[in-house]
Protein: Serine--tRNA ligase
Organism: Algoriphagus aquaeductus
Amino acid sequence: MLLVNQIRENYDQVFAGLQKRNISDAALLLDRVIALDDLRKSTQSQRDQIQAEANTISKQIGQLMKEGKSAEAQLIRERTTEIKAQIKELDEQNAKAEEDLKALLYTIPNVPHSSVPQGRSAEDNEVVLTNGTIPTLHEGKLPHWELIKKYDIIDFDLGVKITGAGFPVYKGKGARLQRALINFFLDEAMAAGYMEVQPPILVNEDSGYGTGQLPDKEGQMYFAAADNLYLIPTAEVPITNLYRDIILNETDLPVKNVGYTPCFRREAGSWGAHVRGLNRLHQFDKVEIVQITHPDQSYAALESMSSYVQGLLQKLELPYRVLRLCGGDMGFTSALTYDMEVYSAAQERWLEVSSVSNFETYQTNRLKLRFKGEDKKTQLAHSLNGSALALPRIVASILENNQTPEGILMPKVLHSYLGFDKI
RNA sequence: AGAGAGUUGGGUGAGUGGCUGAAACCAACAGUUUGCUAAACUGUCGUACGGGUUAAACUGUACCGGGGGUUCGAAUCCCCCACUCUCUGCCA
């Protein structure tokens, strides 16, 4: 969430940022934050003063008791009754102000970076670059949901039997392709300086709040009610939360982690056209990269993450484009997001396979993720993450783009991982 | 899952109602000493929200797993919850 001081000190900038997100009552929201914070401060300060008085009296009573002057002690004690009532009342007011303030801050999204384009929807995203050649396919080309049946490598019907729609079963070369991609992505990330972590894929409530899935998006996560745990929608949640409530040394920055996990998304109500086959699933595999950086370094880190992801797509020989998301399409917690889309030649569509974002201090404020520098001062770090990469749509485009009448050719870079070069 | 024991500052660990934001030791940091290193010695050494200052200094309050209660006063007593450990059971 945003920092109140950030709102106070950069009011105009925050206001303009929220405008970019098409929030019409931004001024109202921000003024309300400041008013609530003022209220919080004043009740807090009154409470502290009275508490200080009470503490003094308590000490006096202790002293008098020790000296055996219990009559005098009794006299002072009577005054505390009144003070206690006041403290209780101020406590309640203060707690309410704090609660209201927090609830309000939860509803305010991150301030977009100055380079974020104005816009309302995906159509207003800015195409930063397009790379690679879109293949010309033979007569009788098939979309991937036909290809997987033809070659019997992914079975949706079996998944329905075992679990339900959106939980495919990968078989034979399909399963091998999954494993090859995961290993390829992990090896590449390690070579780029990311430390591999294998986190739990169920997380508690605190972690959900830490990265911003809660309180608003609980409907998107599967929930294990008996144990109060959520299945992760992305490895971002457990990996970033590794650093919750931590004060790092400045010399530890940047922290670079990579992790492979399955991801689970309920995607309630989002079924329709365009979601056939592998395009949208309830369970899918993803390798995620996360960085924790010094505030001065986070945008350089974002660019390096973007080029890193592009490098993967180039090695996989997939045509792709990079989008800078507009204010209306950007995630709630992000300050700047690049989406990478690959072209899927049979569907004749661009498919999002990665989303790389800088959250600045929006997540670290909730996470209490700070670092201590040379000057001994603690300040919030910046957090970033990106998919590198999400598997299903990569698989879809590899299958569609490389299909030939004789079979599907695998990208060269995967051959050693696969142990075969054609499906 | 059953029974028992625990949860204190970066770590170990004292502390059963006021003099405890918290002993002691270790680690860390700065300095003295030193040819260098080590040892020794001295000092610093938590976080949050306020006040204060150009910035400090200084200062108020809170925090001993989380929440609530008793009390003039709680790390200390009571209740609820979470987690950890040990034994028993189960299990990849």
Observations:
- Chain A has two domains: 4-106, 122-418.
- Residues 40-41, 44-45, 47-49, 51-52, 54-55, 57-63, 65-66, 73-74, 76-81, 83-84, 247, 368, 376, 378 of chain A lie near RNA strand B (CB under 10 Å from a C1').
